[in-house]
Design brief:
This protein is mostly helical and 133 residues long. The protein has six helices and two strands. Strand 1, helix 3 and strand 2 form a beta-alpha-beta unit. The chain starts with a helix and ends with a helix.
Length: 133
C-alpha cells in the first residue's frame, strides 16, 4: 500500500516534471519509516549510481543514517570506493557461476539460429566481460 504522503510527493514532482533532491527523498523516506516497527531497504546495483558530485557517497551516507529500525542491504560489484563506505558492514560475496551463465546464454542464443557460427565466441566474450558479476 502506498501512503497518501508518497502519492502526493510523486504527483507533485510528476506534475512539475521535476526530480526530488536527495534531501527531499530522505525526508519522505524518514516519514514513511516512522509508520513501521521494522523496515527493510534494498539497494540493488549501487555501483550503477554515479559518483559525480559525490552522489553515491551522499546516498549511502543518508541511507546509513536512517533510524534504528531500518535494515539495509546493498548489492554492488566490488568497487574500492563502495567498500570504503561499508567497512563495518557484514559482506556476502556472490559470484556468478560460469556454468550457469553458459547455460543461460546458450538458451537465449537458441532463439537466434543465424548466430550459430559465432555462438561459442559470443558465450566466451560475455563470460569474460561478466567476470563473475
Amino acid at each position: 500500500m502506498i501512503s497518501d504522503n508518497i502519492k502526493a510527493f510523486y504527483d507533485r514532482h510528476q506534475s512539475q516534471s521535476t526530480h526530488p533532491t536527495l534531501d527531499e527523498f530522505i525526508q519522505a523516506l524518514e516519514a514513511e519509516i516512522e509508520m513501521y516497527t521494522k523496515v527493510y531497504i534494498i539497494v540493488d546495483a549501487l555501483d550503477e549510481c554515479p559518483e559525480v558530485n559525490g552522489t553515491r557517497v551522499k546516498l549511502l551516507k543518508a541511507l546509513r543514517s536512517l533510524a534504528g529500525s531500518v535494515n539495509l542491504m546493498v548489492t554492488s560489484r566490488d568497487l574500492t570506493s563502495i567498500e570504503q563506505q561499508l567497512l563495518d558492514a557484514p559482506r556476502l560475496r556472490i559470484r556468478a557461476d560460469d556454468g550457469d551463465m553458459t547455460k543461460y546464454i546458450e538458451s537465449q542464443l537458441d532463439y537466434h539460429p543465424h548466430l550459430a557460427k559465432i555462438r561459442a565466441n559470443i558465450t566466451k566474450k560475455i563470460l569474460t566481460k561478466a567476470r563473475g558479476m
